[in-house]
Amino acid sequence: MWKKVSKFSNAGISVTSYKSERTSLRGPYRIAIFFSSFEPRCLTCSTLLPKGSVQESIIVFFKEKDPVGLRHKHDKIILRNVIKATKGRTVKMKAISTSKMEEGITSLLCRIVRSKLYPNDKILIDTSGAPMPFFLSILSYLRRLSSPPNIHLFHPTGEYPKPKAKRNYVFHTGHDRYMWTPWLWGQQDPSRKTTFVFLLGFEGNRALTVRSRFQPDTCFAVIGSPGYTSRYQRIAREKNKEFLKGVPQSNVILAHAADVPKAWKTLQFNLGKLSETTNLCIVPLGTKSHGISAALFALSLVTPSIMYVLPKKFECIATKRGKMLWLYDIKV
Question: Which numeric CATH code is attached to 172-314?
Answer without folding.
Answer: 3.40.50
